UniProtKB/TrEMBL annotation:
Molecular function, one GO term: nucleotide binding
SUPFAM superfamilies, per the entry: Glyceraldehyde-3-phosphate dehydrogenase-like, C-terminal domain, NAD(P)-binding Rossmann-fold domains
Domain (GFO/IDH/MocA-like oxidoreductase): residue spans on this chain: 133-251
Family: Belongs to the Gfo/Idh/MocA family.
Gene3D superfamilies hit by this protein: Dihydrodipicolinate Reductase, domain 2 (3.30.360.10), NAD(P)-binding Rossmann-like Domain (3.40.50.720)
Organism: Paenibacillus dendrobii
Ranges in a coiled coil: none
The organism's taxonomic lineage, starting at the top: Bacteria, Bacillati, Bacillota, Bacilli, Bacillales
A Pfam family: GFO_IDH_MocA
Name the record gives this protein: Gfo/Idh/MocA family oxidoreductase
Alphabetical keyword list: Oxidoreductase
Length: 331
């Protein structure tokens, strides 16, 4: 058996502590070996809480640790580019939280740095590693719902009362399109296997939240098929996905979050019958870590490379431009 890859975590973000670190702890190919914070006491507390052997008081110190193979970056969005590039230059493979950057140009810079360093750089859209997405793609390709006519999706939650949250810092890459709108966009691209032609987005920009988009609704034009979506940080929680075909519908009640056993199941509606499709209870964060490790160890190719994350950022760029300028943006 191969040794487990050693992971270093840059920062003590909630997503790292709540989901990614526990997911890596369950991994067959990986282990969390170190965590860093600019506040060394915070790093030590988090390390003790989550059974991590080493705590560093700076990100630089972790990158200098020769034993670290992979760096996970859950930092605020505006710091992704800097620390991904620095991690690549230190010879570390990288898993970076979504959205991978603030712009497609930044994403390109990050991809080039990783390529020059000979390391893998992956974007942390963990939902894609749950087996239900392969099951959904197989159903579509089999013709179970006929020809696709449209996709509808949403990802909303209400955190507007937490005014100090990093999501409400415009210069830090705050806003609902960056934070949760990226999921429906990414899923539509994944399921359709192509890139959109144009986008039209309307958004609520909140002066009391540093003028970030707190709610957005959009139409992503893939030619003869469109994604209609909404996203928000000032609305009741939900994350459904619906794929409409000529002969049926695929319904996913919780498309991007699978917190409990059975919540990865979805439904197919055809000829008046609604059938539940059961999928394995898989920790998507563990699956994501194992997939990256398998690529690093030469066991299998990386499913989602830099072309994918750059393309996703191009759509996000266009959505933000459309919302700000009230225009249809052609890609």
């Amino acid at each position: 058996m191969d040794r487990k890859l050693k992971w270093g975590i840059l920062g003590c973000a909630g997503i790292a502590k709540r989901a990614v670190i526990p997911g890596v702890h369950l991994s067959e190919l990986n282990e969390v070996a170190a965590i860093a914070s600019r506040d060394e006491d915070k790093a030590k507390r988090t390390a003790e809480e989550l059974n991590i052997p080493v705590a560093y008081g700076s990100y630089e110190a972790l990158l200098e640790d020769p034993s670290i193979d992979v760096v996970y970056i859950p930092l605020p969005n505006h710091l992704h580019k800097e620390w991904a590039i620095r991690a690549a230059q230190a010879g570390k493979h990288i898993l970076c939280e979504k959205p991978i950057a603030l712009t497609a140009d930044e994403a390109n810079e990050m991809a080039e740095a990783a390529q020059q360093a000979g390391v893998y750089l992956a974007e942390a859209f963990m939902y894609r590693y749950h087996p239900r997405y392969e099951a959904m793609k197989d159903l579509i390709q089999s013709g179970a719902i006929g020809d696709i006519r449209g996709i509808r999706s949403a990802f909303t939650f209400n955190n507007a009362g937490d005014a100090a949250n990093v999501r409400y810092r415009k210069d830090w890459g705050g806003g609902s399109i960056y934070d949760v709108g990226c999921y429906p966009i990414n899923a539509a691209r994944l399921l359709l296997g192509k890139e959109p032609d144009a986008v039209t987005v309307n958004a609520i920009f909140s002066p009391e939240h540093d003028d970030v988009d707190m709610m957005a609704s959009g139409l992503i034009d893939f030619g003869d098929i469109s994604l209609t979506f909404d996203c928000g940080m000032w609305a009741a929680s939900r994350n459904p996905l619906e794929i409409l075909g000529t002969d049926g519908i695929i319904e996913v009640p919780s498309a991007f979050v699978t917190p409990s056993p059975g919540s990865g199941n979805f439904f197919v509606v055809s000829r008046g019958e609604r059938k539940e499709i059961h999928t394995p209870d898989v920790n998507a964060y563990t699956a994501q870590a194992d997939h990256l490790a398998a690529a690093i160890l030469g066991k299998s190719p990386l499913l989602f490379d830099s072309k994918d994350f750059v393309a996703n950022m191009k759509v996000i760029d266009a959505c933000l431009l459309s919302a700000r300028e009230h225009i249809r943006v052609v890609l």
